[in-house]
Amino acid sequence: MSGDGVPEAAGQGTAPGTAPAPGAGGAGVGEGAPRRSVGSRIVGRLGSGAVQVVLVLLALFWLVPTLGLFIASLRSPQDNAAAGWWTALASPSQITLENYANLLDNEAFTGSFWNTILITVPATVIIVVIAALAAYAFAWLEFPGRDWLFLGVVGLLVVPLQVALVPIAQIYGALGIFGNIVSVVLFHVGFGLPFAIFLLRNFFAAIPRDLLEAARMDGGKEFTIFRRVILPLGGPAIASLAIFQFLWVWNDLLVALVFADQTSQPMTRALQSEMRQFGANIDVISAGAFLSMIVPLIVFFAFQRYFVQGVMAGAVK
C-alpha cells in the first residue's frame, strides 16, 4: 500500500500501456503463434516447386520398367537378343507390331484373355452387388444378431487365403466344378466379400440418418431407399471397391494356379506357363504381359474420378 493509503496496482513497475511480459498475469496476452512441429513443417514444404519436380522425376523413374516392357514388346526376338530395349529409342526402325499379330493368332493367349474377362467381370459385379446390399443391412436395418454377424464378417478378414485352398479344392471336386471358370469366380467372391462388406458398411453408416428418415416418412420402402438414396450417395465408395476388386482378380495368379485348368486358365497363368516352357521367348512374354497390364490401367483411368471421390469422402468422414 502506498503512503497516501491508495492500494498499489497489480503489476507494479510496469509502465501504463505496456503489455506484461510473457508468462506474467493474463497468460496468453502478447504471446506469438505456437511453434509448428517438425512434421507440420515437412508437410508444408511438400507443396514447394522443388519437391514437385522431384516427385515428377520419381514418377518418371517408376515408369521406366513399363516403358521398357512396352518397347520390348514392339521389337523382334533378334533385336531383343542383340541389345537392350533403349537402343530402339535411337533406332525406331526396330519397332514392329509383328509380336502382337502373332500373339493374337495364338489361340492359347486369346483364350486366356477371354477367360480372364469371364473371371474378373462376374467376380467384380457379384461382390459389388452382394456387398452393397449386405452393407446397407448392417448399417441401417435392425434385425436379431446384426452386430454379431458383422463381427463375424470382420473376423473373416484375418483368415489367410492359403489355408482354404485344399479344403475348398476338395469341396469343388465333390461338386464336380473343380478346374472350370465357376470355381475360380466363386473362390474370389467368397474371399472378397468380407472386405467389401466392411468397406461399404462403414461408408453407408456415415450417411446422415435424416435423409433415410425423410425417405421413410415419404413412404419409401427399404429397397427404394437403397436404390434412390444409398446408391447415389455411396457411388464413389462402390466405384472404389469395384476398381480394387477388378485389379485384384485380374492380376491373381495363386487361385488360377490351383483351381483353373488349361481350358479355363487366365492370362496370368498362361504367361507363367510360357515363362516356364520358353524362358527366352521374350517377344511373346513381353507382348502378353503388356496386354494383361494395359486393361487394368484403362479401367483405372476411366473411373479415376470416382476413385478419388471415394478416397476423399472416406478421409473426410
Automatic annotation (TrEMBL):
Source lineage: Bacteria, Bacillati, Actinomycetota, Actinomycetes, Streptosporangiales
Keyword field: Cell membrane, Membrane, Transmembrane, Transmembrane helix, Transport
Entry's Gene Ontology BP terms: transmembrane transport
InterPro entries in alphabetical order: MetI-like (IPR000515), MetI-like_sf (IPR035906)
Compartments it resides in: Cell membrane
Protein family membership: Belongs to the binding-protein-dependent transport system permease family.
Protein name per its UniProtKB record: Alpha-glucoside transport system permease protein
Composition-biased stretches (Low complexity): 7-22
Cross-referenced Gene3D superfamilies: MetI-like (1.10.3720.10)
Domain ABC transmembrane type-1: residue ranges: 113-303
Span of the signal peptide: none
Chain residue ranges for the region called Disordered: 1-32
